[in-house]
């Protein structure tokens, strides 16, 4: 899909000069931001939780048995 660069530039400049457009953009970002954070936290939780258990067991001098299931 081809986009007319001059038309796009004028549209973006018009959006930058429009305070209402900036407010709408910020509102959209604020609505999506918690979902982005939740997705990142869920991914890190999946990675860090097993590491936390292994580290905690090591500190408590316990053996860690990882089952394949």
UniProtKB/TrEMBL annotation:
Domain of life from the UniProt record: Bacteria
Name of the molecule in the record: Uncharacterized protein
Originating species: Rickettsia rhipicephali (strain 3-7-female6-CWPP)
Organism lineage string: Bacteria, Pseudomonadati, Pseudomonadota, Alphaproteobacteria, Rickettsiales
